[in-house]
Specification:
By secondary structure, the chain is α/β, with parallel strands linked by helices. 41% of the residues lie in helices and 16% in strands. The protein has 9 helices and 8 strands. Strands 1, 2, 3, 4, 5, 6, 7 and 8 form an 8-stranded mixed β-sheet that branches. It binds adenosine monophosphate and manganese (II) ion (3 copies).
């Protein structure tokens, strides 16, 4: 059987549409042999995902996608092979749940000022026990016909600089990397091209990330073209980072972001899974 890795995806424990069980089942159907569930700032979906992984034969890699700050910007760090019970990490996810709830309250107030009431209750209901994310607000805005797509909700209300944007203080990047590595995991810079950094800023970021103990970079993501793959692979080589691949799957609506539907990792890049025990 050919190995197929997908090391970045979301379940209902954060802003994914599928439960951990449904997600692992879908990954299995798509031919994924090793799957990392990487919900935003939470490991709450991992236990359920493991049960379904055992039943289907998918190898589950424990994961998380931490929201972090470096130089006043937000960067997502994926942790792979983490120990969810490592106390500092477990404590951090608990704090991040409060951070996200407080941010949600502020976003809802801003929406109220734009004459859009009742957002808080709606996103709380939608998120249930999981993390409240801006995706939940986007879905609410679509459901109330304020916008017609999630993208439009971000463009008009939720993105940085828009009326309902709330600046949030996340964990420091260096600290988040230490939680991951000290729990036995590997820290990976998620979707490096999404931050729109200049080459110089990318160099500074990767230097700080390496110094903090970061070991990987997502070379392969969904919707990445050959030139972009070469660019990120070049960063991986120059900064001696292992390469990861992940779809960042959230739901089945977006057919461009399917579980396991990924270009292969370039041959000269060290696969991040070789670092996972
Ligand atoms: P949060 O971590 O709560 O700030 O939410 C970030 C999540 O919102 C990301 O992981 C994406 O799933 C989603 N997101 C961010 N920007 C956009 C966008 N422009 N369009 C659609 N979804 C977005
Ligand atoms: Mn998301
Ligand atoms: Mn992300
Ligand atoms: Mn993600």
């Amino acid at each position: 059987m050919t190995e197929l890795y997908d090391l970045h995806c979301h379940s209902t424990a954060s802003d994914g549409a599928l439960s951990p069980t449904e997600l692992v089942q879908r990954a299995h159907q798509q031919g994924v042999t090793s799957l990392a569930l990487t919900d935003h700032d939470t490991t709450a979906g991992l236990t359920e995902a493991q049960l379904c992984a055992d039943a289907t034969g998918v190898k589950l890699i424990t994961g998380i996608e931490l929201s972090t700050n470096w130089q006043d910007k937000c960067f997502h760090i994926v942790g792979l092979g983490i120990d969810p019970n490592y106390a500092p990490l477990a404590e951090a996810t608990c704090n991040l749940q409060s951070t996200r709830l407080e941010r949600a309250e502020k976003i809802a107030l801003k929406l109220e000022k734009k004459r859009i009431p009742d957002a808080l209750e709606a996103v709380k209901n939608a998120a249930g026990d999981g993390m409240i994310t801006r995706t939940h607000f986007a879905d609410f805005l679509v459901s109330q016909n304020h916008v017609s797509t999630q993208q439009e909700a971000f463009d008009r209300y939720l993105a940085k600089g828009k009326p309902a944007y709330v600046s949030t203080s996340w964990a420091k990047l260096e600290l988040a990397v230490s939680w991951i590595t000290e729990s036995g995991g590997v820290a990976v810079l998620a979707h490096p091209l999404r931050y729109k950094l200049s080459a110089n800023w990318m160099k500074r970021l990767l230097t700080a990330f390496k110094d903090a103990g970061g070991q990987g970079i997502e070379v392969i993501t969904s919707r990445i073209n050959a030139d972009e793959i070469r660019l990120v692979a070049d960063y991986a080589t120059r900064f001696e980072l292992a390469g990861s691949m992940g779809s960042d799957f959230h739901n089945a609506v977006n057919q461009w972001t399917e579980l396991g539907r990924l270009a292969p990792l370039p041959k000269n890049i060290k696969p991040v899974w070789e670092l996972l025990k």
